[in-house]
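Data availability excerpt. The first of two example chains:
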Amino acid sequence: GALSINGQVAVSPGYVFWTGEFGEFRDTSIIYRCPKTPGAFVETVRDHTSQSLAYMKTLYALNDTNIFYLLGDGRVINLKREVRGAPPPTFFVWEPTTISAEATALFLTSDRIYWVDASSDRRTAFFRSSPITDVTNERLDYLAFRTTAHDVFEFVVNEDYIFFQDLTSSSAGPFMRKDRNDGNPAVEIAGL
């Protein structure tokens, strides 16, 4: 379970999570975790090596038993470690919930998960979110439309704003700010 050059790392109160990237083009991933203590046992959390384009783009640890991540194929996954069976014996499984199948970016705050979905023609980027405690309670926070295809690969969110950069195939695009408290369009804060 060595960390690869393109791997992602996330830390929870008791564990370190990381990914190894595999395949000729480093286009598949395995997620590992271990306690923060020296000499700890490494656990394989999730193996995506049999799935095309399942490389790790973003990884967040909410706590020791719940992670959120974005794969290269566009899936946003909430993965929880859950107890199965009636004592005795009991056993643990990592239970996945797919939140989106077409995302380009992911961001997590203490109480919400945010992601960006792209339309099939890549002209519209849908900024969505849901409470961490109820990932099925999705809302549309903003939609960015352009006449040419574009993508949002990175963005951040605070109490007041969504900050993002629109990327096209020919340019980096402007750095944008969307006020979360009004219905106005996003404004350009820097041309890059």
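And the second chain:
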Amino acid sequence: NPDLYTITLSTKSNADVTLSPDNTRGGELAARHFHAMGHRHVAVHMSESHPTRMERYKAFYAEMKWLAPECRIDIVGQSLSQNTDAVLRNYFDSADPAPTALFFLAGSFAENYLNELANADPERFRDLSIMTFDRPQDLEFRELHYDFDRVEFVSRELLDWAEYYITNRPMMKKRSPIHTTIDVHLVVTGSVR
């Protein structure tokens, strides 16, 4: 599944296990990177109100406002029924001033942006810095067709931890949640400048 972000396991041993990338740290890494590169007006692509993406956004917003209280962060909201190209075109047609950077909380939308918008109007988006929160090439899923700066995690680690918890069931005396986060790191390719 190319959209694998979170795994939840309900067990008979009174433990509810949730596995996900460290979305808080990832949002903070993205904010620090944009801030270090001088960006103070960032548009954030938000698709639906997915809890994983909301964690990323909240951490990004908090860190950017901590680093630069005067910064402007615009949400570019997209519902399931909308097309990424149309949503971004509408946003950029009305944004005044235009942002200097665009952060995709899920990488598949960055690929839509590249295919549907940036390639159709390269001059308009030439100076726009782009960043995503994504997975590296993962042969089990699919290859990325872009090389944007990104906060990255490895899906295989989610599956490894799921296998661990299935094989080694936690023993709890009362119902308890266990949330395990996997490491994320910043990959700089030069798309944020």
